[in-house]
Amino acid sequence: MGKVLIIGAGGVGRVVTHKCAQLPEIFTEICLASRNEEKCKIIASEIDRPILTEKVDADDVAQVVSLIQKFKPDIVINVALPYQDLPIMDACLATGVDYLDTANFEPIDEAKYEYKWQWDYHDRFENKNIMALLGSGFDPGVTNVFCAYAQKHYFDEIHTIEIIDANAGDHGYPFATNFNPEINIREITSKGKYWENGNFVETEPLSVSTKFNFPNPDVGERTIYLLYHEEIESLVKYIKGLKRIRFWMTFSEQYLNYLKVLENVGMTRIDPVNYHGKDIVPLQFLKSVLPDPSSLGVRTKGKTCIGCIVSGVKEGKSRNIYIYNICDHEEAYREVKSQAISYTTGVPAMIGAKMLLTKKWGGKGVFNMEQFDPDPFMEDLNKYGLPWTVKELPENYNFSKNGI
Length: 404
Ligand code: NDP
Fold this sequence. Notes:
By secondary structure, the chain is an alpha/beta fold. The chain is built from 15 helices and 18 strands. Bound molecules: NADPH dihydro-nicotinamide-adenine-dinucleotide phosphate. NADPH dihydro-nicotinamide-adenine-dinucleotide phosphate (NDP) binds next to helix 1 and helix 13.
């Protein structure tokens, strides 16, 4: 049905390549390109159908353009880093090819992300008759689709959304991040932010927390911390009637202690410091000494649980539901040689690309996940490894009081 160019051979790139390869009737040819072609070749060697590999520096629009002109894909899946979103979108515009990513653009010199930069491409994509699907990972991605599904099938009006992300996996290292350490630490050390009654409210980093009892006993009760996350920005725009939306994530005490020390000694700084006559960015140096997230799969045990508690009104009555997925690190590794964080991101990226190639989702311009019919995507989550559950909560359910 179509040729796919995947850019980025990290943890998520591995999963996307494996999952696309499992569907030869949809993804007829696959090319995996990254800064380091050797990493692409290792992934290609794990798969029993031909995967083309290429070297590309995706910061350089001209290199991406010539790769697209050579391979002629129907869609480009960007699973490099958020810094590469705009150059890859520019290359798609120049060549007239659809685009998909899993994280929104972030300038390298400022730990700040927002959709503005990518939404600004809407008219140019529309005029070029092509489509960009933004944030087709798990969060953002599946969480946006969960909200659209709740809106379509369970509510007349949605009032509050709590997005809750738990990683109860254990890799045995004292400190490691489950996806790119630089992006991960920039996100966690930034101020928290949620949206209420038309305004964003800022909080000091990791200063708001509560206990939450997760539905799976292997995850159990955990402390969850309020963070800002990009899907808040698009859900506020597309879920009508919303009064409040927040995002929460679990961290262990040990993880936070290590992070605090690293912050206090200056290792999470993103401004260059001069070391022996050379400018280095402490966080980038830290990344180079931490375990590579794609090496964690083989040693990670436990589960993730990511989902949304959605509250609102149906036929005049108050209603609360919890939609979530549980993913097992070891099962993910057995299937695609990756831990569950990469798995829960890579599977939705493949499904998003499938939605475009099969024309179940389509449009001209730049779109977020919740703008489309959630049903075919939800069906595919069940089919391709991320089954979900909807739990009806009591009418008088109160997140702040009850956890779950
Ligand atoms: P990794 O760091 O493991 O992989 C990124 C890959 O991109 C690496 O192979 C890296 O190359 C490559 N790369 C970096 N810069 C360039 C460049 N200029 N040109 C070409 N290739 C480049 O990250 P992950 O796989 O963990 O994450 C991938 C993306 O997924 C990130 O944007 C992340 O934010 C996003 N993500 C989204 C989630 C969601 O739920 N929505 C959850 C988790 C991640 P090299 O190997 O040489 O460094």
